[in-house]
Each structure stands twice: as C-alpha cells, then as structure tokens.
Design a protein that fits this description.
Blueprint lengths: L10 E10 L6 E10 L2 E6 L1 H4 L7 E2 L7 E2 L3 E6 H4 L6 E4 L5 H5 L12 E7 L6 E6 L3 E8 L5 E6 L10 E3 L17 E3 L2 E3 L9 H7 L6 H17 L1 H9 L4 E3 L6 H8 L1
Parallel strand pairs: 12-15
Antiparallel strand pairs: 1-2, 1-7, 2-3, 2-11, 3-6, 4-5, 8-9, 9-10, 10-11, 13-14
Helix pairs in contact: 5-6, 5-7
Amino acid sequence: MWLDELYIQRLQRIEMTEPWPAAGPGLLAGAITLVFERDAVICSSPLRYSHCQQGTVTAMFDGQARDLGFRFTVLPSDDAKDLPRDWTLNTQSISTEAWLGPHTSTNAAPPWLLQAEVEVGSEAAAVRLHVFGAGWLQLRYRPDLDGCIEFAPVNRHCASPNHVAVATPNDAFGWLHPASAHPFVMDNRHWKTAHPRDWPWPLARAWRSQPTSSEYRQVMKAALLARFSQHDKLRRRLKAMQCPVTVAGVPEGLIEEVAALV
C-alpha cells in the first residue's frame, strides 16, 4: 500500500512494544505502530525481531530504492489491533504539547496525516510524516539505541546515552541482566537464568556471596557466554551495542569481554 492512501486519515493512537524512556520530545521503542482510522503502519526493529538484519527497501515516494533501516509494514487496522503491545499511548489522552514539546501547535485539531516522504541523509533513510496540528514528524531507525525506532519531531532526535546502568531485567538493556529470562544449557545442565540464585547449588553455595572474587567472575562469564551463544537475537544486540554499560551483579568490564568473544 502507498502511504498516500493514509492521507486525511486520523491518527487514532500510537502503540509501542518494548518502550524506552526517551531523552527528549520523541518516542523510542522496539516497535512503533501508528493506528489510523482504516489502516496501520507498523515500524519494527530488525535487530530485535527479524532474522534478516536489513530494513525495508522502498521506492514508494520518489522512485528511488531507499533502505529505511527498520521494517515497515502497512496493513488494515483491524489486523493490527490484536498484536501484542507492552504499552499504549493514546493520542486522545495526551496533548500535542506534552508529547512533542511547546514548539508545536496546541490546537485540539484532529491529527490527520497530510503528507509523507523519505528523508535521505548520511545514515539510513527516514520516513517523514506531516501531521496536521503537529508539523513534520520523523520515523527513524536508531541502531545506537539498541535498535529502537524513534518517532520525533524533525531535527529533534533523542540523545544517545553516554552510559547505561541496568539494575533489573525490566530496564533499558535489561536483556543484559543475569536474571533476564533467557534459559540456556551449560555443562549438560539447564540454567533458568544466569543469576546466581539460579546457579546449580554447589556453585551458588561457593561463589554467589563473593561477587568480587575471580571465581565468581569466571562462573558469570561462562554463564553469559553460554546464554549469548545460544540466543541469536541477544547475540546480535550485544554485538551492536555502542555505549558502555554497568549491570547489577556483573563484574565491571565483563559484558564488553563477553561481547568480544561471542
């Protein structure tokens, strides 16, 4: 479907899968779905959800083949409403000013789509949408932010963090946490997670109370290597990571060491 078929359709809601707390006026998530009156646009991260790491290549706007970086699908709204979502942002319950910032119009005008185009820069192409009452917005792939999709005003990107601290599996980059629910097999044993509470009892008894010991580091390293080696999508995300991280329960520098080995 050509996006011009969405023109003058009202944007009813925005749905986000694995949302991030955005540093700025935009939205960040592993997948963002724009639900219009009759049709929906699903933008998803190939790094997180696809075996193929290439984004959608489209020539729908100017006849030139453009790689969007992310996966881009248009389908009837009824087919999209039952897809799993972790969190929903309803455009009727949040003001344009609160979402996009005070530089935009605060009129209570319906958020109709007026125009769409592709912006080509030094990175992968981005989709620009002209939304009545909100101006030009941009859908952009952010491989530097764990493969997120960014939906933000044009020229107002979400900032890349200088450092990420992971305290729980529910945080951004929570898949790095030892308690992340990604089971694996090591030494012919099934490990529920890499967290010390799930270590086999002899190891747990000997080393989980000594997180600064070299033995604890060796066990954690072996467990993380096994987990990332056995989960392709996690391994791709680990290899693509572009900022330093500190993970609760993981010795300093061990994540980077594991990334270099898997």
